[in-house]
Write a structure and sequence with these properties.
5 helices, elongated, 0% strand, 106 residues, mainly alpha
Length: 106
């Protein structure tokens, strides 16, 4: 029963906001999975993004203790940095490349 509620909090963090302990449970589970997966292979950007989203949802709960909200906010920002660093760099095109690509489209 508790596992099912935790999985629901994983899938829909904003709907679980009435029970912050479920969000805390879910984000702790996600963090442990991220650590386990990170040791086995390359870090999963989607998992890091979900962790960030859960921490952000916790940080925005008005009924949560201020120290816990502040911690979640700080951790959310740190996980956001992890996500940004893991994103592939944007493709850079020179003017010549854009001109050649533009002439092919015409």
């Amino acid at each position: 029963m508790a596992i099912e509620k935790a999985y629901q909090a994983l899938r829909e963090p904003n709907k679980a906001s009435a029970q912050p302990e479920l969000l805390v449970s879910a984000v702790l589970h996600l963090m442990s999975q991220y650590t386990a997966n990170n040791q086995e292979s390359a870090a999963c950007i989607k998992l890091a993004s979900v962790i960030e989203r859960h921490l952000k949802a916790l940080a925005e709960l008005p009924d949560l203790a201020p120290v816990l909200r502040a911690t979640c906010q700080q951790l959310s920002e740190q996980w956001g940095t992890v996500v940004e660093r893991a994103m592939p760099p944007p493709e850079r095109f020179s003017i010549l490349t854009r001109l050649v690509a533009g002439s092919r489209m015409n």
